[in-house]
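Sharing a chain and its predicted structure for anyone who wants a worked example. Both blocks are below, sequence first, tokens second.
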Amino acid sequence: MLKKRSARAESEEMAAIARAVERSLAEGCAGLHHLSTPLGRASYLRKAEVVRNLKPDGGRLLDWGCGYGQMSFLLRNRGFEVVSYTIEAEEPSPWNSFLREQNLEVVYGEDPVRLPFEEESFDVVLSCGVLEHVEDECGSLAEIRRILRPGGMLVVMMLPNEWSYAEFMARNIFRASDHDRLYSIAKMQELLARSRFRAVETWYSNTMPKNFTPLPERLRKLLGAHTRLWLGVEACLSKIPPVSWFSGVVEGAFERV
């Protein structure tokens, strides 16, 4: 049975991310709205716990398209041997400062599909908010399959749900969506099956919004103040159809076959 991390340890993790984000924002790093509130940061902590529960024995994990590095940081703290991968420039920038200060192993790639890793060299690959943006879905999934060991797991998170009310509002009211492709549970499973991945578990997430990006700052802070309550209600709603069908994202764990 997995030992639950203490509230103090989780609080320290959230504080470390908050400090880093504040510095990066001061240095001109854009695109960090998803980490700029306690609610946004706590949602990633919950996602890290999901990965830990899916693979309690840990192993070597590739954070594919690691972004700012919050998931790499959280998963390393949960016993994984993490390699962070990004195709951004290697030169120091506010965007990758958190990865550097946490002494995480970062690999910088140039090819949008090809991965610079040996075959069967990872136990887990995490795609958190990445697969929906790649140019060649099947090519990227083939590469992920190549570097996963037999029986290895691909965890897909943050795929935008085609039935999401939040996505509808972002596209049609706020004109703020950057998702060219939308998915359903069935479409996600079909895509992964074509690339020879077997679905282990699928679920809905982000039933309730967390970033409140279009709203005034004071209102954003107010809505994000009650983190545990907000995430607790969301966890319940994400399991109750038909409410869950309109969640923000679809997610799943897939085994390499």
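Comments welcome. The chain is about 35% helix and 20% strand.
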